[in-house]
Amino acid sequence: MTRPDVPPGSPWGSGGPWSGPVPLRRGLRQMRGALLVMLALPLAPALLINLIGGSGRQMVGTLLGIGGIVLALRALRGGHGRHRAAILMGVGTGLLALMAAQVPVLGAVIFGAMAWFGTSLLYEGVPDAEPAPAPPPPPAPDPFAAPRARLTALAAGPERLRPAVAGLQELLAEMERQPGALPEARRFLNIQLDGLERIVARLRAGAEPPAALDALVAEMAEGSAMLRSRLRAAESEALDIQIKVLSERLRQEGFA
Predict the structure, then answer these.
(1) Could you give the CA distance from residue 237 to residue 245 in angstroms, rounded to a whole number?
(2) Burial class (CB in 10 A: 0-12, 13-18, 19+), 3
(3) Cβ distance 188 to 223 under 8 Å?
(4) Is the pLDDT reported for residue 145 higher than 80?
(5) How confident is the model at residue 1 (pLDDT cuts 50, 70, 90)?
(6) Closest CA relative to residue 15, chosen from 163, 120, 126
(7) Beta-carbon neighbour count of residue 25 at 10 Å?
(8) In angstroms, rounded to a whole number, what is the distance separating the alpha carbons of residues 201 and 203?
(9) What local confidence, expressed as pLDDT, does residue 106 receive?
(10) Exposure class string for 56-83: b at 16+ Cβ within 10 A, else e
(11) Burial class of residue 242 in the structure, from the number of CB atoms within 10 Å of its CB (0-12 exposed, 13-18 middle, 19+ buried)
(12) Residues 6+ apart with CB under 8 A from 89
């Protein structure tokens, strides 16, 4: 079936009433199947009459007809499309005609086909229900979460260890800016964290700090600074190489 031409500026859009602006489409989605409910309204008093009259065959046929309309309505509102709804309407109408209206088999088939074809035409172009939004992807694991937490705990420790802790915090910040930092930096960080945690545990247990502790802390802070400088130098060297390669490529292509 071809859709009629839509005048320019019509709120329906070029594809018919199901392809208009978003608020209009949303409203039509909420109303789809309302016509099927209207078709099912006369079946309610018919079911009551059959129930009073005690006609089991007609009552079952009426129930099957109502069930077909209900299932078609669910198919439309569930986003399964007009094809399934049309089939359900055809089957329900055929059974209704055969069992409740005492129509011969051929006539019931014809009525079912008419209901199928009419529903297909009625809901041509009906959009499927909007799919549920996909769940957001889980956040990527933070490889520096554990050392960051350990440094936070060490920062609240003895004050004489602060220079080493501050040096490690600066080193960690540099490593976070460079995800591909040298493996040496990771080993250095873990060794220093393990050593500082053991020192803090001994001090909290009542151990007297030896004279060599301050020299060790200064050495650790200096090591962190040296490694941080190496990381920055490696990045600067990589950038210099990239600039040279790009310049050479531009000259080869005749753009420089």
Answers:
(1) 12
(2) middle
(3) yes
(4) yes
(5) very low
(6) 126
(7) 17
(8) 6
(9) 82
(10) eebbebbbbbbbbbbbbbebbeeeeebe
(11) exposed
(12) 36, 68, 69, 72, 115, 116, 118, 119
How far is Cα 248 from Cα 252, in angstroms, rounded to an integer?
6
3-state secondary structure of 124: coil
Report residue 203 as tokens.
């001090």
Whose tokens are 């910040």? That residue is 173
> The tokens 């004050």 sit on which residue?
159
> What phi, psi does 131 have (nearest 5°)?
-65, 150
Q: Which residues contact 143 (CB under 8 A, 6 or more apart)?
A: none
How crowded is residue 214: how many other Cβ atoms within 10 Å of its Cβ? 13
- CA dist., res. 75 & res. 83, Å (int): 9
Would you give the DSSP letter of residue 99? I
Residue where the block lists tokens 């071809």: 2
Provide the mean pLDDT of the chain.
Answer: 75
Average pLDDT for 5-23 = 47
d(CA 64, CA 84): 16
pLDDT in tens, 58-86: 777 777 777 777 777 777 665 556 677 77
Q: What is the pTM of this model?
A: 0.47
145-155 vs 162-177: helix crossing angle, rounded to 10: 160
Q: Which amino acid is at 83?
A: H
Nearest alpha carbon to residue 93 among 68, 57, 128, 124: 68
> So what's the pLDDT on residue 130?
57
Task: For CA atoms 21, 25, 28, 33, give the dihedral sign.
Answer: positive
